Amino acid sequence: MQQQLAKTIPQEAFDWYDSYAHGGMDRRTFIAKLGSLVALGYSMSVLTSALLPNYALAEQVSFNDADIKARYVNFDSPSGHGKGRGYLVEPTHIDNDKEGRLPVVLVVHENRGLNPYIEDVARRLAKAGFIALAPDALFPLGGYPGNDDEGRQMQSTLDRSKIEQDFVAAAEFLKANSRSNGKLGAVGFCFGGYIVNYLAAYKPDLLQAGVPFYGTPAEKTLRANIKAPLLIQLAELDERVNATWPEYEQDLIAAKVPYTLHMYNKANHGFHNDSIARYDEENAELAWQRTLVFFKKHLS
Q1: Domain coverage including residue 250
Q2: Is-above-0.70 flag for pTM?
Q3: What pairing do the DSSP bridges indicate for beta strands 102-108 and 209-213?
Q4: What would the mean pLDDT of 171-188 be, rounded to a whole number?
Q5: Does 40 share its domain with 83?
Q6: How far is CA 268 from CA 127, 134, 145, 171, 215, in A?
Q7: Strands (E), the chain
Q8: Which of 4, 27, 114, 280 is such that its CA lies 20 to 30 A from the CA of 13?
Q9: What contacts 31, CB < 8 A, 6 or more positions away?
Q10: What is the tens place of the pLDDT at every residue in 225-281?
Q11: Cα angle 23-25-27, degrees, rounded to a multiple of 5
């Protein structure tokens, strides 16, 4: 449904939304630009339905699924906001194997807090046999507010360096889980992709595998520290993020980091997010299967 809707509107509408969602355009300008399409015969309701998320579409694994156990947990973040909170999801079979240890994966949201799509990604990982933790950067402000616009505004008010340290603390907390096999992976989307790149560079022994989806790199001065293998997932139509890749690739080569790049044909930024019309089912499924294979290779 969402993909069919996407075909009815021009590419520039997605580009405008990307700029708006990442601080390159204010809401008034964004709405005015959409209005210019309305003048050309496009329906505003169709445009907004295509660009804004419908999280009812994003549930692939129910929180009631018998194969998983999900709950919210708190963790200490002394260098960040003091305390953090995340959505922890475990395969239920670990309760039946006292000696069993499983790989763990940190799931990092976009620039708007822990929304239902990201929680579902954590459940998908648990369904595949990983222990997953999805922290909420908005916990210091009361948590994800239930809509992305407000969440985005809230996240923009937080100290970015403290957010980064909250995710470092979350990664350390997850890696120390009593059921962890000691090997930590991280997957993130948009801002979360940046955090994956940051974690790999900031504390090089923390991650054993990283999968940034359309994420920008860490500061250049940190990149030489990276040791963990990276699976870079980029979208062909994502000009903003893709512009950062050539320099990042050269830094990865110079640091002898094992990496694989996949550029997904005709895909937009956010193509893995099945709550929005930018979702590309074929590319999203391919990228996800590659992600699972990558984690199983490096974390088992």
Answers
A1: 62-299
A2: yes
A3: unpaired
A4: 97
A5: no
A6: 27, 24, 26, 28, 13
A7: 68-77, 82-91, 102-108, 131-135, 180-189, 209-213, 230-235, 259-264
A8: 114
A9: none
A10: 999 999 999 999 999 999 999 999 999 999 999 999 999 999 999 999 999 888 999
A11: 100
